Amino acid sequence: MELLQNTKDVPSRSTLIVWGEFLELTGTTPDRLSELMDIGWLKPTRTAEAALLFRQDDVYRIRKLERLCSDFELHTLGGSIVMDLLDRIATLELRIRELTDR
């Protein structure tokens, strides 16, 4: 048996998820998913056959959004704005930590 010499020869696992699996993993509805794509908050990749593929990282984001909207009785747009602001705060906190660790 010949071993692969180069890691580029090893097929990598895809980080993209199809529509149905994404809905199942996130627990969201097709309408909510469509709304998030319409407002540009979620940007899936399209295949040559026009199938939508979502990033695995977006599963966490959607679950967090669903929880936020449910807990605070927010509409999709309001929840997405809060999520964006929370992401910006986390990024700024990380930058501050990096600057103070120097």
From TrEMBL:
Superkingdom of the organism of origin: Bacteria
Protein name: MerR family transcriptional regulator
